[in-house]
Amino acid sequence: MDRLITHLRHVDLAVPDFDTQLAFYRDLWKLSPETTDTGIAFLAAEGSPEQYQVRLRADADKRVDLIAFGAGTPGDVDALAEKLGRDGVTLVSTPDKLATPGGGYGFRFFDLEGRTIEVSADVATRAHRRVEEGESVPVKLSHVVINSPQPEALVAWYDRHLDFRLSDTLFSPHMGEMMWFLRCNPQHHSLAIARCPHVSLHHASFELRGIDEYMRGTGRLLRAGVEKVWGPGRHLAGNNTFSYFLDPQGNTVEYTTELECLDEDTWHPSLYDFTNPEVSDQWGTANPMSEFVAKKSFNDPDRGVFVAPPV
């Protein structure tokens, strides 16, 4: 497979209330602030070699600054930039040394709907550690799900330009196809696309060590009074656990574990009817999938469409 993108690196969010957001991700969500400066913070997951997995930036507008992916080599970065340029994709920047923590070599471009995407290689790894039994801290950023008013076209765009492959699709008999799970490696999904009236972040998901740690983390957030959207439960597509919460700015964030790894040579995508309760939650422990749950994850329309972040 000649895929140039290897994995998900980080998701970068801009928020009006920076201090409250930083306190949430540090004190409750349990990410580690690696580098903080006035109005910007780089937050790492304890078990991940990535320099950071969430970047927070103070801004008057709530927006997704960018979603970042890794590539194998600087040559792969150049090859992808050349391919995208040839295909008429708008490059925000050309391949060059990165000034963010860990450095590296990368570039940025707009996807079909104007999200800023970064692809990089040769980023220095962070001193990370094995998360121990009972520690309810994120091991890594698992996946990012984005909302789209034209999801079929967006799925085709990520397939054509970035070689993301479809793992599974969710549908309902009265609404049609609603969510597409896309992979850039054997993990069931690093990116997913949900149907929504507007462009926005659906959720960012963080992997915990195992079921016990995932439940402890879920319980910590419940005890702290963080608004739970959906969970705890276990999805059928991806076979992963889920507990969805709202951060202080109304973004949905998820604790998960045990996301399925696929044999890409033999995998065939399934079409799952999510009105079947066992598709949404195999365990039957989560609150039912409802209009409330769906609307909470619609989020506010993204204010950063076709506007590259200043940093």
TrEMBL record:
InterPro entries: Glyas_Bleomycin-R_OHBP_Dase, Glyas_Fos-R_dOase_dom, MMCE/EMCE_epimerase, VOC_core. GO terms for molecular function: dioxygenase activity; metal ion binding; methylmalonyl-CoA epimerase activity. Keywords: Dioxygenase, Metal-binding, Oxidoreductase. Residues 7-122, 140-258 form the VOC domain. The keyword Oxidoreductase applies. One of its GO terms (biological process) is L-methylmalonyl-CoA metabolic process. Pfam families: Glyoxalase. The keyword Oxidoreductase applies. PROSITE patterns: VOC. It comes from the Bacteria. This is Glyoxalase/bleomycin resistance protein/dioxygenase superfamily protein.
